Amino acid sequence: MTPWNILALPPLPLEVLRAILAPLGDRVAVSVPRSRDRAAVLDALPEAEIVIGDWSGELTLDAEAVKAAPRLAFVQQPSVGVDGLDLDALAAAGVPAANTAGVNAVSVAEWCLAAALALSRKLVQADAAVRAGEWPQQTLGPRELSGAKVGIVGYGAIGQECARLFGALGCQVTYWTRTPREDPAYVPLETLLATSDVVVVVIALSERTRGLVDPRAMKPGALLVNAARGGIVAETGLDHLGGVAFDVFETEPPPAGHPLRELPHALLSPHVAGVTAQSAARLVEAVVANVTAAVEGRPVSHVVNGVAPTIARR
After folding, report:
1. Residue-wise pLDDT tens digits, 139-181
2. Residue 209 CB partners (closer than 8 Å, separation 6+)
3. Does residue 84 share a domain with residue 122?
4. Catalytic residue numbers?
């Protein structure tokens, strides 16, 4: 069998990418663009039959890129988010696009819980005060998370794991997702924002969710935890809140003078909520399994653009 041409876009050396896909042996030929820029990607796409996307968002596949890839049969995104792919253009071309749903659910949910605990117990402020020689034992005003009303925006694998973890601490958990459900825990978004003591945002970015969460709709003193994507949660209108934790930003990294960098009750993280050794291992396993299925003519998993999951070589 002629090897399948795989174009790999993640920001990793070619030898590492080949090592990851080594289980496929000589059934695949793995290459990368000559440089990490759009022109190089467009030049490499005409021969690509499978594309492994770029989790960093630096290299994207838009409609022009899809048009430049007449042999493309499958796109595997090595992340949960697929905002770097033009799903409509891929669907129109009959190209299935899959993500790695669920691989980082535990890691992101644990980060959300840790961030909520850090905000509620004011761990960052306490640490800074003690390091500065202060002893604000009676003035910090920490509070317990147990018993708090926690509203989760997004109820995929990550949202469900968040519900499990927060529920285990005795929190009153509700959620909102784009598809209404007959579930007592499901509430309208406006209600969730207005009544929750803690709002956790873990929904995927799309045109429907861009600008979805306005912190000004939250009650004074509430906590906001954002582990979704930049652009879903407004990065202003936060002064009335009791604390905010952002792992994602509209511009990454946030530039000097960005309001969040100046906000004293903000906990900021460099988009690492889903980055653990365990989640990386699950991601690699999911990517290799799906690419293997594609090469062997078996249905792939987690197709996100509505195309049939059996890959046909062109």
Report:
1. 999 999 999 999 999 999 999 999 999 999 999 999 999 988 9
2. 178, 203, 228, 232
3. no
4. 229, 252, 271
